[in-house]
């Protein structure tokens, strides 16, 4: 059966959020124009390193089949952004210091959520899941259904977090003072940049949930009809037209989720 391309796919969520925040910083401080050479941001932020690590991660995400390589690039990218924000937090003062502190904390929270979803994605893509040769062993259906159900739960929670996170961030930014220019610019930038990425996030999030639901449907269909199927000569044989039709439909949906 086909699998989702890689557990690292879920990290697109974090990538988009970070891109939103970095774009927001540019709009907040520089408007639509490049920042002046004498700005504190230009002096301290390693923007070249940020762009390099971002492009490296995006390239590997699209082209690499090595999950460890993708994970390494992802961690490098997140660490790069966090270190930049931490650096700015250290050299700034007052509301600007608080601004970078809020962004750094938000990135940490978002990255942690993606780590949690990444873990259950690895579990649900294990070769053990939907291995017909072992499904009828005692307790195996329960184990696999448990793994898939946990994945659906975490994917749903992550989806909810994704679409509540921007609102939550806006609430945290109120600590800057709702009448302050930095707050107004921040909220405006968040809305503008996130709106462009929202359709991608919606498609990715729903695809992850659909994948889990269709996989769960296949397992439950086979569990509820153990007597009409067997696995022999490396082939699944279903001796009931209704069960077979449902299995094929769910399996086709599963492949479409790719």
UniProtKB/TrEMBL annotation:
Transmembrane segments: 12-31
Alphabetic keyword roster: Membrane, Transmembrane, Transmembrane helix
Protein's name according to its UniProt entry: Uncharacterized protein
């Amino acid at each position: 059966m086909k699998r989702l391309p890689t557990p690292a796919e879920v990290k697109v969520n974090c990538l988009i959020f970070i891109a939103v925040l970095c774009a927001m910083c540019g709009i907040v401080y520089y408007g639509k124009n490049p920042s002046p050479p004498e700005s504190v941001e230009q002096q301290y932020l390693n923007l070249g390193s940020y762009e390099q690590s971002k492009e490296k991660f995006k390239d590997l995400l699209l082209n690499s089949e090595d999950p460890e390589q993708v994970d390494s690039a992802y961690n490098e990218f997140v660490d790069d952004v966090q270190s930049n924000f931490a650096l700015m937090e250290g050299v700034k003062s007052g509301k600007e210091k608080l601004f970078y502190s809020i962004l750094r904390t938000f990135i940490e929270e978002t990255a942690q959520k993606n780590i949690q979803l990444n873990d259950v994605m690895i579990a649900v893509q294990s070769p053990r899941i939907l291995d017909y040769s072992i499904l009828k062993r005692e307790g195996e259906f329960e184990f696999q259904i448990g793994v898939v159900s946990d994945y659906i739960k975490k994917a749903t929670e992550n989806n909810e977090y994704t679409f509540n996170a921007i609102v939550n961030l806006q609430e945290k930014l109120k600590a800057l003072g709702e009448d302050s220019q930095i707050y107004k610019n921040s909220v405006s930038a968040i809305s503008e940049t996130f709106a462009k990425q929202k359709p991608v996030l919606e498609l990715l999030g729903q695809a992850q949930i659909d994948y889990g639901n269709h996989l769960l449907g296949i397992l439950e269909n086979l569990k509820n009809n153990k007597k009409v199927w067997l696995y022999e000569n490396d082939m699944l044989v279903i001796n009931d037209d209704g069960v077979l039709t449902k299995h094929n439909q769910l399996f086709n949906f599963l492949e479409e989720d790719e």
